[in-house]
Model the fold of this input.
Amino acid sequence: MTCIAVDDEPLALELMESYIAQLPGLELKSTFTDAISAWGYLQRNPTDLVFLDIQMPDITGLQLARSMDRRQPLIIFTTAYANYAVDGFAIDAVDYLLKPFEFSRFQDAVNKAISYKRLQDAATNSTESAIFVKSDYQHIRIPTEEILYIEGFDDYIRIHLESGKSVYTLMSLKSVLEKLPEQAFLRIHRSFIVAIKKIQRIHNQQVYISDKTLPIGKSYVATVKTLLS
Done:
């Protein structure tokens, strides 16, 4: 896996380089002491994995991660601040390393990233569309055909499936929408994404799916009308 490391502390970068050099599955392409330079590099160079500090001047690691599009690399956050953990996992980070961390902990995080990359590659090569989300400390494969709708809360989402089951994961609606096939899903409300094929009817600014009635937000009415036309 190709990777880069981003940290405004030179000593932290030196430690990362040392750890990465001990793992033959990783190829360190570059290091950066600021998020802006790293962002520029990522726009020009496909990268599998980013080791990303959070608290940095000008642009934080969280802001950098949120600025990436659907082609974003896997992210392992490295920070001295435990209070960013929920924000980190909401971005669907592979792991969150709290400084100072030992090599064994670093290796565990990298192994998670390698496993997740294999799952991503398998999904890409499959003829069946699917997404992977983290739930209960594991990555779960969800065929998109099984999704009815997705409900968003403050810092997590609930994916409602045709089977009647639900999958909960720390992720934003914006992040999960970027993973889904653009032509198959539609955001109808600040709290809801629906599978277009599963819509049974639309009436009085409400969408009916299965036995559920979901509201259409005022700012999404025009988008839904465009779909109907």
